[in-house]
Structure to design on (404 residues):
């Protein structure tokens, strides 16, 4: 009886998490660069890095790279990506390093892998991807290993998958995708499981609404509940609050319709919910990119049904979050409001980090001589967070509680 009660309690919590949340899209500073689709993005240390992509008519491939600082809502241009200009590439993050691989340039499918270090804004080339060159793959990180698979190339669509180990600097094949060969799926990760959804089976001439879960511990795929909507290709996918979100994309086989509807997936119940606000572009979106910091997602660029490549940038989060101070070891002063926390210091500090209860890094700030810092808590999970800072020669901390 205890096991059954516990099971139903989990189901209740999972179902309520969809209905109690008040998700909202918020417009952020647009990217100060040419509009693009099929760009690449990853998040490291509380900042977002966006690069590459192609313009509306695909006559130009980009190599420029931009850093978005959420706390300041601004973009900063970095050095250009040193590899070939490209679009349709894969990205993942391992231990504060960003990785970009495969994609297409003006004439060929690529297999090169590049590692990015944000501290000095530098790239280093690593071992090539071992599969065929490809575009439109799925890519994600599980257990500090990067995964890349599916996509399309000169031989058609693929379903093979590989993982990259940073410590070994090697690629290894893993279990191939359970569904049909898949061009341009969407994907997200929750609790060390990956979900590859939607996409295009071009050999079967069908736009997909399927959903498959990958377990790295058993190296197996499992079929999960389909998206409760029309199949689509080039959709946006991300996960926050232990829930997966899929939306946008377009019908590449039939009507050519561009979508803006969004859906939320609960992996505990294997159910989808449709009560999610649509993507803000009234003309839909295709081949946009997204990434997550804490429990706030960011999405933008892409192309709409007017065949305009956008510079738009948005955040997506649960707005029902407030912050309360818990403990304070030093002279820091906490000023909070719904959606953000401002920490002020008696003297300038050089380093500040914020971790959640699991020890996961939410924010890293390394600018010198700062007397205050503003941290967005929109979309953060409820719980206790600890900020550490250097006051003189001592490391001190202030904790705070994020709660409804």
């Amino acid at each position: 009886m205890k096991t059954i009660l516990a099971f139903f309690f989990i189901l209740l919590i999972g179902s309520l998490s969809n209905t109690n949340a008040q998700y909202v899209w918020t417009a952020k500073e647009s990217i100060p660069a040419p509009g693009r689709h099929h760009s690449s993005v990853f998040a490291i240390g509380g900042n977002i890095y966006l690069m590459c992509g192609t313009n509306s008519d695909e006559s130009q491939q980009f190599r420029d790279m931009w850093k978005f600082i959420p706390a300041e809502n601004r973009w900063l241009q970095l050095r250009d990506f040193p590899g070939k200009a490209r679009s349709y590439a894969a990205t993942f993050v391992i231990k504060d390093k960003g990785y970009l691989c495969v994609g297409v340039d003006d004439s060929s499918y690529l297999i090169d892998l590049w590692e990015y270090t944000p501290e000095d804004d530098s790239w280093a080339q690593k071992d090539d991807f071992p599969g065929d060159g490809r575009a439109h793959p799925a890519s994600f990180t599980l257990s500090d290993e990067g995964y890349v698979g599916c996509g399309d190339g000169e031989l058609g669509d693929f379903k093979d998958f590989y993982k990259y180990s940073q410590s070994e600097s090697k690629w290894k094949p893993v279990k191939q995708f359970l569904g049909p060969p898949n061009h341009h799926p969407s994907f997200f990760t929750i609790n060390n499981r990956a979900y590859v959804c939607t996409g295009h089976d071009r050999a079967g001439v069908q736009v997909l609404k399927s959903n498959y879960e990958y377990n790295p511990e058993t190296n197996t795929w499992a079929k999960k509940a389909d998206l409760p909507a029309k199949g689509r290709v080039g959709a946006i996918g991300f996960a926050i609050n232990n829930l997966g979100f899929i939306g946008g994309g377009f019908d590449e086989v039939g009507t050519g319709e561009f979508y803006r509807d969004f859906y939320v997936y609960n992996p505990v119940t294997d159910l989808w919910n449709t009560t999610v606000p649509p993507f803000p572009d009234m003309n839909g979106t295709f081949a946009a990119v997204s990434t997550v910091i804490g429990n706030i997602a960011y999405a933008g660029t892409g192309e709409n049904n007017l065949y305009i490549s956008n510079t738009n940038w948005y955040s997506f989060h649960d707005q029902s979050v407030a912050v309360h101070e818990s403990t304070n070891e030093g002279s820091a002063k906490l000023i909070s409001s719904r959606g953000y926390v401002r920490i002020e210091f008696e003297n300038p500090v050089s380093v500040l980090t914020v971790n959640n209860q699991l020890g996961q890094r939410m924010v890293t700030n390394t600018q010198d001589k700062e007397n205050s810092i503003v941290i967005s808590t929109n979309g953060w999970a409820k719980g206790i967070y600890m900020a550490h800072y250097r006051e003189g020669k001592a490391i001190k901390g202030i904790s705070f509680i994020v709660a409804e």
In short: Residues 145 and 168 are 10 Å apart (CA to CA).
